[in-house]
Structure formats: C-alpha cells, structure tokens
Write a sequence for this structure.
C-alpha cells in the first residue's frame, strides 16, 4: 500500500535529517518508527504525508506517486486518502464529538444520511457513542484521542499517520488508545505508520523500525 524509496530530507546548511530511507507498509499493517527527540521521525512522517517536500526520493500510495510540486493535488489526496492522529488531538472545541468525527466526510462530500451512519459506527468502534453530543473540552485526554482516531478512520483512508499519539496520555489511557488504533487499522485494512519515542507504544505495532543518525533500520 505505502512504498517509500530513497527518501532524503535536510535543512539548508546542515546534515540531512535522514537519507536514502526505504520501507513499505502493507494493507492492514501497523508500522512504528522510533527514535530520539530530534531524530527526524516527525519530519519523516510529514514528508510521507506531503506536508514537507523531500530533497530526494519518492512516496507511492496504492500505486500512485506523490507529486510534491502540486499543492492542490496533495491537499485533495490527503483529504481523501490519509487519516491523521496527532499528539495534541486537534479537535475543534466548538463542535461536538460527533461533528468533529464527521468533518472528513463533510469535506469529501458524503451525503448527510451516510455521514450520520458512518459517524455512529466510528464512535461505537472507539466506545464513545454515549459522548457523541459532548464538546471536546468536557472529555478526558484518552477520550479525546479516541475521538481523534474515529475522525482519522471515518472516511476509510488508505493510509493512517500517527504522530506521538500517546504522548499526552497516562499509561492506562495510552493502552486503551493503542488498542483502539490497532483495531481500527485492522478493521479498515489501512496501512498505518506511527512515529513515537515510546518503546511501549511501539511494541503494540506489527513491526518496529528505528531512525538512527539519519538511517532507518529494523529495531
């Protein structure tokens, strides 16, 4: 599903953050990338997402190569094919949980009745049906992250990208969130790439890679 070849990214005047990165993620597979703070793992994730341009290399998803020179095409591709889970949740505070989860469907032009059905299914899958009408500010951190997972998966993306999804959670909530994420990836048959500094979080993935001194290697 996801194929990355020769990916290289650096900043002017400095050594590359990473160089010649090669890896692939299959449908239904969850791959974790671990590394120290500042190792470049979040930049790697953003480059795979088309949010940053690489200096060299290519990214292919489901047979399509990303065109980093076309911002409009990249934005449309992300809207339809990618689901994001962030450390800081990024739920809109003035919308209910259900309305937050519905956002990707609305942006993709899904009809109202179908949006309602799919949001209900997504909330049930992460155990938040009873909280659908609540605002994010009234939820715990674990509940907000589960809502974020529902939002990331509701439009059935081919690729799920998670950036330190348990970084703001205690151990108990982190375990629940990781279980929800793993179940959602398997259920949707998406390819999932997670970057984290937590070896505990990484251990929940199907495969772990380590970013060390700009090189990606098996952990």
């Amino acid at each position: 599903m996801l194929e990355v070849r020769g990916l290289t990214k650096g900043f002017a005047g400095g050594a590359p953050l990473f160089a010649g990165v090669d890896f692939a993620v299959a449908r239904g597979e969850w791959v974790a990338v671990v590394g120290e703070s500042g190792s470049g793992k979040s930049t790697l994730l953003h480059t795979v997402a088309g949010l940053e341009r690489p200096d060299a290399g290519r990214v292919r998803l489901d047979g399509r190569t990303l065109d980093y020179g076309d911002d409009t095409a990249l934005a449309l591709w992300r809207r339809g094919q990618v689901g994001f889970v962030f450390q800081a949740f990024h739920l809109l505070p003035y919308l209910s949980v259900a309305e937050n989860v519905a956002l990707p469907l609305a942006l993709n032009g899904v009809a109202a009745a179908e949006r309602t059905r799919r949001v209900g299914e997504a909330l049930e899958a992460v155990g938040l049906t009873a909280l659908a009408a609540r605002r994010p500010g009234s939820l715990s951190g674990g509940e907000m992250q589960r809502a974020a997972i529902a939002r990331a998966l509701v439009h059935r993306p081919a690729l799920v990208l998670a950036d330190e999804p348990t970084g703001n959670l205690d151990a108990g909530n982190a375990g629940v969130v990781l279980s929800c994420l793993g179940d959602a990836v398997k259920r949707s048959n998406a390819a999932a790439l997670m970057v984290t500094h937590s070896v505990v979080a990484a251990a929940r993935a199907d495969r772990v890679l380590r970013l060390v001194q700009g090189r990606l290697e098996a952990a």
Notes: The chain is about 35% helix and 25% strand. The beta strands are 2-9, 18-25, 30-34, 56-61, 64-65, 82-86, 159-163, 191-196, 207-212, 215-218. The chain has a mean pLDDT of 92.
